[in-house]
């Protein structure tokens, strides 16, 4: 089983326009869709569509449309009682694939709800192969919460992945190696925040075919105890760095339609490949293939295996600078 935690879930409403968005103008939508969302929920949706047993842990009440939407999609969930309904996030999608997102902050969680989520993760992790902690934390939750959860999961046999940003990401890194996960999935900006590098420089270098600045930055995290760093670089591809190897993959040619859920799909692809016993190159290829497939789909649609073309993703092995003595896993 794979377990995902989404502390700040949402109902994601996507409005598709037939022309470029203009500030202050009146636009007519060509289509609108509403789907259950939040980063961990997206990961759970992709894993479920791929036929993998998955449970999404999240706060929710019985009357919340989010829970009904998950049930309609066949996504198994474990809801911890809370007050209020899931927030609504709005995405405006333009014909060239540009997406503008307006995310609500979410309802503050009461201490008993946070305690319930913590207890649920600790209990269910005993039976999981992977635990995925994804997304922002809602108001009222300490930024160091993810770090505490990682430390708790590390006491089990499950592997743990983290995909977050801003204060929760920085708080997680402040606790390394105690809070170092088996996998962390930063984008270029987030990797820069963690390592003191310029994220724009990292992404620009990768776009020019030079992923080594990203590899060197990711290696800093591996040396601090992280098992693997999956650094996503937008249209330039992604880099995977572990204690024993580094790889760079570029995406196949696609027509971008929406970036919503692309990073979450990449993370799901990595986990799927790991469960299938793939090596580093194989895990990276599946991650990039899933992320690219998501970007080619409209709105908040997420990829199924039939949308994914792993063979179209070129991967090359890179020289690994330095050495790591702290990494908990070697592949």
Automatic annotation (TrEMBL):
Keywords linked to the UniProt accession: ATP-binding, Kinase, Nucleotide-binding, Transferase
Q: Where is the Carbohydrate kinase PfkB domain?
A: 16-306
Which family does the similarity line name? Belongs to the carbohydrate kinase PfkB family.
- What is the name attached to this protein's record? 1-phosphofructokinase family hexose kinase
Query: Organism, per UniProt?
Result: Rhodococcoides kroppenstedtii
